[in-house]
Design brief:
CATH class of the largest domain: Alpha Beta
CATH topology of the largest domain: Rossmann fold
Oligomer: single chain
Structural class: mainly alpha
Order of helices and strands: EHEHEHHHHHHHHHEHHEHHHHH
Number of strands: 5
Number of helices: 18
CATH superfamily of the largest domain: NAD(P)-binding Rossmann-like Domain
Shape: flat
Mean pLDDT: 90
Largest sheet: 3 strands, parallel
Strand order of the largest sheet: 1-2-3
Distance between the termini: 33 Å
Number of domains: 4
Strand content: under 5%
Low-confidence stretches: none
Length: 405
């Protein structure tokens, strides 16, 4: 259960009316109490469960003109810690997520005001406000029954987070040729190092598609890439050495590229678009690594600054679960109650099978080729035919069906 509801209202302390105070407390704090209590009663009977409440960074770092909001969120943080002690005996986990400013209509009074937004962003290391998907990912992590798997090996992560060093001349021309509009944007910089660095930022967004600051080998940009860019902007390769001495420059340039060139950060809309793109592929194969590669290529072509590899793995995990749910829903949609009864019977232990289930008997290896083993195979095939199950829908990809089998 997720206790998500929350509201806020900026007012000086001396102007807060009792009705406004009570409304904030009722939604933000009392609502969490009632939801947790009712869900906890159900979960206690079931033997366990998971609850996530929505707190806020204001629970720990208060702001002016938000006394009622700060108090309500501080109460949520204290309540969750208390509830964890009471509910643990029932196998119930309860946690809280404490976001900062999230891009919703409720925070527009901050995010839509350039001066106020700039003051807030100075306090955020990533220099951006949270998206709904960021909060959702945190909740998903806390609510997951099982640990979200890590699909990529360390070596694969290393390759995906490094600037490629083995590009052919054709690839260099294909990926790192700047357009006239991009060159004009590059030449707006006054310092040679900034012109060169800005051009490198643009080029690396062309391919592999990540901002320059995220690459592990950013201090060793391959010489062929630098040479190709240097020829286009009429600067020596040595000019690049001084780029990025002030870390803020890297992020300022990315912000300007997003504004001028149509790139955008990965928010919930972009995650949703990526999931829709990946789902047909996930319905054909459950191999995670190719899906991760397809996701990164999708972000690159759509000019979306990609999420971290961990977030991309989470995205693929979600898509694979959706594909699996779809697969099982389609497979079971034609089953009648009689079919289900026959299938349930496969799980019952049978004395004549030595205490094993009929399902275990069906899956047993017949043994070495012989008349006896062939007879066993035929016996199993006849039993399956007698179940009279509906055929596998042709809309399902054969690879996926074979994986289930």
């Amino acid at each position: 259960m997720v206790a998500q509801a929350g509201i806020g209202d900026a007012q000086p302390l001396l102007e807060i009316e009792e009705a406004s105070w009570q409304r904030i407390m009722a939604v933000n704090l009392t609502g969490v109490f009632f939801c947790t209590q009712e869900a906890g009663r159900v979960m206690a009977r079931q033997g366990g469960g998971m609850i996530v409440a929505m707190a806020s960074t204001n629970a720990f770092q208060v702001e002016e003109n938000l006394s009622h909001y700060n108090t309500s969120k501080g109460g949520v943080a204290a309540f969750v810690r208390s509830a964890a002690l009471d509910l643990s005996r029932y196998g119930i986990r309860i946690n809280a997520v404490a976001p900062g400013v999230v891009l919703t209509h409720l925070s527009a009074w901050i995010t839509a005001d350039p001066d106020r937004a700039a003051n807030y962003l100075k306090q955020i290391p990533l220099r951006r406000f949270a998206e709904i998907i960021d909060v959702a990912n945190s909740v998903l992590f806390l609510m997951a029954h099982k640990k979200i798997p890590t699909y990529l090996t360390d070596e694969q992560c290393q390759v995906m987070m490094e600037i490629p060093t083995d590009l052919s001349d054709r690839d260099l021309a294909r990926y790192y040729t700047l357009t006239s509009e991009e060159l004009e944007l590059v030449n707006r910089r006054r310092r040679p190092a900034n012109r060169f660095g800005f051009a490198v930022q643009l080029a690396l967004l062309h391919f592999p598609g990540r901002p320059f600051a995220e690459y592990r080998n950013q201090k060793q940009v391959p010489r062929p890439i630098l040479t190709s860019i240097a020829q286009q902007i009429n600067l020596p390769v040595s000019a690049f050495a001084e780029y990025g001495n002030r870390p803020g420059t890297l992020y300022d340039h990315i912000d300007e590229i997003c504004k001028e060139c149509g790139y955008r950060r990965c928010g919930w809309r972009e995650y949703l678009a990526a999931a829709r793109f990946l789902l047909p592929h996930a319905l054909e194969s459950d191999r995670a690594v190719p899906l991760i590669e397809q996701a990164l290529e999708f972000f690159r072509k759509e000019q979306i600054l990609p999420p971290t590899l961990v977030q991309t793995e989470k995205l693929v995990w979600i898509v694979l679960r959706l594909a699996e749910d779809h697969l099982y829903n389609v497979l079971t949609s034609r089953l009648t109650q009689e079919h289900k009864t026959r299938l349930d019977a496969l799980l019952q232990n049978e004395t004549r099978l030595g205490g094993h289930t009929r399902l275990a008997w069906l899956r047993a290896v017949p043994g070495e080729p012989s008349p006896k083993s062939i007879h066993k195979i035929v016996e199993r095939l006849l039993f399956i035919r007698e179940l009279d199950l509906p055929p596998v829908p042709t809309t399902l990809h054969q690879n996926r069906v074979l994986h289930v089998i």
